[in-house]
Design a protein that fits this description.
This protein is of the alpha/beta class. The protein has twelve helices and 13 strands. The protein folds into two domains: 3-71 and 123-251, Alpha-Beta Complex (tt1808, chain A), CATH 3.90.1570; 257-398, Rossmann fold. The strands form four sheets. The chain has a six-stranded mixed sheet with strand order 1-4-5-6-7-8, sandwiched between helices. It is globular.
Length: 399
């Protein structure tokens, strides 16, 4: 199959869909990009990954009226990185910076020191951000130069990496032969990356920088009531929809070191849909008289991470002093959930300590009453298996 045929069948089809159906701007950069501030993308050279022209425009748009050097300082903090850190550590730091805002300081007309966090994205109004997909982008590393199939930028930040193969190629080949090569030769590709997609025009999976191939998963449904279809269109529609993409970035990525090794975790399809449905129920809790329903999981479906995503989004988007009681029926589960929450705590908005276990003595009871711990875990002793499961999930859902 020729290169032109591959491009027409897979890459161009994907980019056309992102542009025509999802509203992204698309630029074809292969051997046509010009450099400089007035160039195609505003890059000075092919080693730059952050499109500072769009980034600075977003900083000015969302944080008006500041001295010019403040915007320059924010750009510098986003672009620069310490050479001593691993790519995953850099990615973790950049994620927190981009999500929570860039801390800057300056003196006002009265000489008083002002500290502010500059917004990089408008999460409340996704359409106010600039969405750009670039095809065939050349990027140079320390020794090698590689060409990306599709790199997607939001306000100049390279958040979505899409690796495409011929329709007859296995997706694992995209992971083993291409993605791994990019990670080794052009590590700056992933300093700011949020999501990685590998696809062949029919199948498509998504994962994170630290994901093994077995952890790259399909995006089967746009609504949890649908039967589900495993194809590239469903994934693009589910992930690259502007509202979904910003929601995914803001609320459905965590870094977890509970096992002693740092990993980056993306929400699975059912977690994204289920947590958002649970959030909707919380917003309607008065109408529902406090009965929020049940978010059912099969074994291995990621119950602990669903709880993390749920509590995190509640704290970040709804505010208030919500305290969550996580009930389990076994010591090992109690320990597992406690470790997961603790391991993810760095990336939780308004992080508060998790108290575990609860109800072991009066000191624990007093702690629950007199302090605002974000999450408390408790062990339930119940004999009837059926009642046990319903009671456990009902308590978690109602809180």
């Amino acid at each position: 199959m020729s290169k032109m045929t591959e491009d027409m069948l897979v890459q161009q089809t994907a980019s056309d869909y992102i542009r025509d159906k999802l509203g992204w701007d698309v630029v074809y950069a292969y051997n046509e990009e010009t450099f400089g501030i007035y160039g195609t993308l505003g890059r000075r050279n092919d080693s730059e990954m952050v499109l500072t022209r769009y980034l600075k425009a977003a900083l000015v748009k969302f944080n008006e009226g500041l001295p010019q050097q403040i915007y320059e300082d924010a750009v510098r903090q986003i672009v620069e990185y310490p050479a001593t850190q691993s790519v995953l550590q850099i990615n973790q730091d950049k994620y927190a910076l981009l999500k929570d805002g860039v801390l800057v300081q300056f003196r006002d007309e009265k000489g008083e020191l002002i500290k502010r966090r500059l917004k990089v994205f408008d999460f409340e109004h996704p359409e106010e951000n600039h969405f750009l997909a670039v095809r065939e982008l050349w990027v140079k590393g320390a020794l090698y130069r590689r060409r990306m199939d599709i790199m997607c930028f939001v306000n100049g930040i390279p958040l979505l990496f899409i690796e495409l193969k011929n329709v007859h190629k296995n997706l694992q080949a995209a992971y083993e032969k291409n993605l791994k090569d990019y990670m080794d030769t052009i590590p700056q590709l992933f300093h700011h990356n949020a999501i990685i997609v590998i696809a062949n025009g029919v199948e498509a999976k998504l994962g994170s920088y630290s994901s093994q191939y077995k952890h790259f998963l399909e995006w089967k449904r746009l609504e949890d009531t649908e039967q589900g279809v495993v194809d590239m269109e469903t994934l693009l529609k589910g992930i690259c929809d502007k509202h979904n993409f910003m929601d995914m970035f803001e609320n459905f990525i965590v870094f977890d070191d509970s096992t002693g090794k740092l990993v980056k975790v993306l929400a699975r399809n059912h977690q994204f849909l289920g947590v958002n449905r649970a959030i909707k129920a919380v917003l309607e809790r008065k109408v529902r008289k406090g009965k929020l329903g049940i978010f059912w999981h099969t074994q291995g479906a990621g119950k602990s991470y669903s709880m993390v995503f749920f509590t995190r989004k509640i704290h970040r988007k709804l505010g208030g002093n919500f305290t969550f009681l996580v009930c389990t029926d076994r010591d090992d589960l109690d320990s597992q959930i406690y470790k997961t929450f603790a391991g993810c705590s760095r990336c939780l908005a308004n992080t508060k300590p998790m108290c575990s276990p609860l109800f072991k003595n009066s000191t624990r009871k007093s702690l629950m009453i007199h302090t605002h711990t974000g999450t408390i875990s408790s062990l339930l002793q119940m004999k009837r298996t059926g009642l046990k499961m319903v009671f456990l999930l009902a308590i978690c859902a109602m809180l």
